[in-house]
Amino acid sequence: MRQYSDSEVEQLIDEISEAAEEAIERAAAEAAKATALASLEREAAALREAQKWKQEAEKAKQAKIKNYVLTGVICFLGGLVLGVSSTLVFGGK
After folding, report:
1. How far apart are CA 24 and CA 32, in angstroms?
2. This model's pTM is above 0.70
3. Spatial separation of the C-alpha atoms in residues 19 and 26, rounded to whole Å
4. Hey, which of 20, 28, 70, 80 has its CA 20 to 30 A from 54?
5. In sequence order, what are the residues at sequence separation of 6 or more whose Cβ sits closer than 8 angstroms to the Cβ of residue 12?
6. Cα–Cα dist 93/85, whole Å
7. Torsion sign, CA atoms 64, 70, 73, 78
8. From residue 21, how far is each of 12, 15, 28 by CA, in Å?
9. 31 DSSP 8-state letter
10. What confidence score (pLDDT) does residue 4 get?
11. Which residues of the chain, if any, have pLDDT below 70?
12. Helices (DSSP H) in the chain: which residue ranges?
């Protein structure tokens, strides 16, 4: 079995410590990247959800306008029918 001198032991400890520090730094960098990517994914999902709600609101607005026009046409035709029938029934006098 080989005997190591104090200076060799200290050198090995320094090398192992340096390698460990580098590994920790790499792991921290990867964790930071993963955190940033997760944040971006959440933001993208929120933007997709907001876009979906915006499209649904636009569709609802268009349907509302269509319903207003349809109601106007029905009321106009109903008034016209009522006016014509009243004129016919009462003879226009």
Report:
1. 12
2. no
3. 11
4. 70
5. 4
6. 13
7. negative
8. 14, 10, 10
9. H
10. 77
11. 92-93
12. 6-90
pLDDT for 93: 57
Q: What is the dihedral sign for C-alpha 7, 8, 13, 18?
A: positive
Place of tokens 């035709």: 77
Q: How far apart are CA 40 and CA 73, in angstroms?
A: 49
Q: Which two tokens stand for residue 9?
A: 């032991």
For 82-92, give one letter per residue: b (16+ CB within 10 A) or e: eeeeeeeeeee
With tokens 């006098």, the residue in question is 93
Sole residue written with tokens 């090398």: 15
Integer Cα distance of 75 and 67 in angstroms:
12
Structure tokens at 74: 């029905």
DSSP state for residue 92 in the 8-state scheme? T
Mind listing the pLDDT tens digit for each residue in 45-55? 999 999 999 99
- Residues ≥6 apart with Cβ < 8 Å to 2: none
